[in-house]
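User: Quick sanity check before I run a bigger batch. Here is a single chain. Can you write out its predicted 3D structure?
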Amino acid sequence: MSAEPTAYPLGPLPSPEPRPGSGRLLPVLAFVLTVLCVTTVALTSTVRSTAASPGFYQAVLDEESAYDRLYGEVLVDPEIAPVTRDLLAHLPVPEALVTSNIKVVLPPPTVRALTEQQIEAVTGYLRGDRDELRLTVDLDPVLKNLAELARVYFGDLVAGIQGRDQPDFERFTADLAAALDDLRNGRAPALPRLPLTEDQADRAADVLLGAVPERQRTALRPEIEAALREGDVATGLAATAAAVLSDGSRSAAADLRTTLQDGTWDLTDTLGMTGDDLDALERARDALRFLTLLQISALALALAGLATLWFTGPAAPARRLMRLGQALACAGGLTAAAVLLARLITGGRLFTTPSTWAPSVTALVDDLQRNALDQAAATGLGAALTALAGGALLTAAGWALLVRPDRLRVPTPTALRTTAAGVACAALAGVLVVPPVFGPSAPRPCLGGSRLCDLRYDEAAYLTSHNAMSTTADRFIGPLQDPDITTQLNTGVRALQLDTYRWERPQDIAARLDSPEFTPEQRRLISGAVDKANPPRPGLWLCHGVCRAGAVELVPALKGIGDWLRDHPTEIVTLIVQDDIGPEETEEAFHAAGLDDLLHTPDPDPDEPWPTLGEMIDSGRRLVVFAEKADGPAPWYRNFYRYGMETPFAFRSPSEMTCAPHRGGTGKRLFLLNHFITNAGGSRLDAGRVNARDWVLERARACEAQRGSPVNFIAVDYTTIGDAAGAVDELNSRRAEED
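Assistant: Done. Predicted structure follows.
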């Protein structure tokens, strides 16, 4: 008759006797060694998976909306102006031109790309993937945007100087360089003589000499005064320019060429010359190398400690399980305590920002530090929890075998050893793997922020470009936007109102010119173009009323939108088409542009909720297309006014703006806010007023309250004037918080 297994009471367990020959000290040392080594593995894994992970830094920047705050808080802070001016000194353009068009010159996607480039360089250096730290900024995108901005604002001026319909910027630049060389070498430009009185000549000489280095003024004064008194302004200017340009221009050009080598700005050299301590990164790299070796050593010792605990443990296998579990659980508790203590000691800051920093910069840096430490602490606690869970599982299994063996099927010693080894190793592997795998990584941005991914399409707000194709860049008569369509997307526009046409015949123009959108001057210019027998052009076009007033080919424009979407895989774009061509032709144009894989098909029922932004991004179907007239036959081509409603749009002054129902009636899921002034054409002056951030927010909230639905599309003229984009960002941020 077999003996019954011994059952222990639920109270304290009897103290185990050590196995013969094992001694009492070795198990204690093995226990302590295991606890310390598992803790070391957890902490080193946490540090390496945060400090050397590009995803960690990208996650912190996105969680704190750093890119939005850069434009909305930092760059508008008056106290940051000296730093901004110093940075702009590297760009050969007027400061005011850049700062007033900052999102055109340096759009948010470009800032993100440049930032991620530096993060990759630094973390790669810290990990040892790169032997040398080189922080370089590719300024080609910025310089291209500056060139486009110059074409937008100076194209007409250059064309007028050259007597051409289209400006030749290369020739203009060459002519300007030649003129500067003439001045630099003291050759007088071809200017008529200008008779001056003696007093006028003296005052003019004072003005000219004010630009000359002080050490040269005395020697130059007689020459300049003599020339001016004779009315020879050209010679006076040449003498002045030669002195001014001989030092300043040449040195500035040399500095610029040195700084921007092949369109690349080497920040490493720049930071080194300004005295910034880059040795800290070298020390951090050495520390990470040491941590890597420490982690490998600790992992080996932890495995040895666990094995020693098993083989030197009590005779009862169940108690050995408990001993292993207790060691892992203690390591988890010690890791958690170390992480919480470190977070408490730092107080959310790794360093104190200097008092000389602008308040907006200090606030942003402090928030980034706090967020980074919070996420690092969360990663460390995840590793601690893994060790605690593994330890609790082993302890519970051993306790159950000891206390209730009559109700359990006791495994064989071999099976028990295998189980113990498997759980212990899994817990140790979890401590090692959890931080890098489940630690913070760059979240997927939706409309520029990860917090918006859970918003439904019909809950988000989108900056909408009214008559997006009618641009200064594409030389429309009476343009309503300045940059071209791609640049508009780069500056934050996410919905485009486009007008599709066939090129009109001469007899079609008279009726179209009766539209109040055209001023008498515009009618005269268009009629003049028609009088030159400009024949109709085949194909499909994006025009604003009359194609001879400006036109962009439809298929290439659509292809450009598709290329932009593929370059920005987490963005969603909506097209609202004023369709003067048939739906079948529209479908063929989208197919010819290669957009089939991007088109989103709305639910046939307009009352059904839309998918979330994250779901649309995951599907890859990120281009939504509505028509003002058509409704199909393509399933993705739906009539906007079945799904959406709008406000009136023929406002002649800001005071006339209302939220009254217009096309689409009321009660629809999508809401288009027409927010522009049409008074014999678009009004830049009114756009500067109504596109102001507070004005847009005030009207959007008033219309939301009146119509009982969130505003989705805020359609404005001149999207780069004012801060309608900032208002849209604020609406989305608040909706994400409420969601």
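The radius of gyration is 35 Å.

User: Great, the batch can go ahead then.
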